[in-house]
What does this fold into?
Amino acid sequence: MNKRKEVTIYDLANKLHISVATVSRALQNDRVVSKKTRKKISDLAEELGYRSNHFARNLRQQQTNTIGVIVPKLNSNFITSVLAGIEKVTTEAGYDLIIAHSSESHEKEVANANNFFHKRVDGLIASLSLDTTDLDHFKPFVNKGIPVLFFDRVEQDGNNTVVIIDNTKCGYVATQHLIEQGCKRIAHITSSLKRNVYSQRYKGYRDALFDNGIPFDESNLIVNDLSEQAGVDSAMEIMRMKPLPDGIFIVNDFVAAVCMRTLKEHGISIPDDIAIVGFNNDAIGKLIEPPLTTINYPGIDMGEIAARNMINHLKGISNIHTTNTIIVRSELIVRKSSLKKGNGHPQF
It folds into this structure.
């Protein structure tokens, strides 16, 4: 079946025996063209199925009204909520989004960035993959004056505008909570310590141990990816530890849920044997038994803040380069998974 030919403003002009310039002005609702003529052109455009070529017009105006977003993965409640926050703000401002994911690959992230550069996005919002080691692929944007804003997984070298939470403080608060529940052998399950979010949460964990006179034991650190299998493998590794940890701080709620399920299947009681704190406040934390204590990481807020800063920069209202670091609020949500013998008051 042949693809139907796209209707152009030249077709409309020929049909109505008027100039192309008049049709163009009318379609932009220019009052230079009489109301009657504008209606005639509009009716014919609708009848013939004419679609305005926003892309070509925007290129002539040196803007595309699109913002690129690069995320490390899409199968994440946190990333989904960030994207919802970004989309809410950009839609209200009349911008379209193009979303790409790196699948935790530096190579794919580079390809995504190059693709967005050639698509002439007006701005770029990005969260880095686990194995990204340099930001050279973002330099073409900077050189062209195209704003780039990073969120969550970032490089904090003082040259980039980043939207983050205080990961070190969160790691400290999560570990301190376990210590206050009487835990003295606290394991930490995390991902690549090359990435800021995990290295900083690890630092918070170490700082809390130090401040409470608890020696750090390297064998209590488990570094894995954030897959379902990682949750199972981490639980099996926990069970091989002698003595068994009495608390675990896990940097991801999904991994925490899988780890908890595996431990329970092997007869370990939570929180009586092992108290557990997760991170992100994903929906799964309320559904598992016992409900998971976690750090609330408001993805929608982060997305809205990142998008609003980008839009305001593009509209000349503010300049993202004047603020290097924007910190989003976060807090501990206490549920039953960490409350040994009913200490404290759970929140739901």
In short: The domain at 66-165+298-317 is CATH 3.40.50.2300 (Rossmann fold). The chain is about 40% helix and 15% strand. The mean pLDDT is 89.
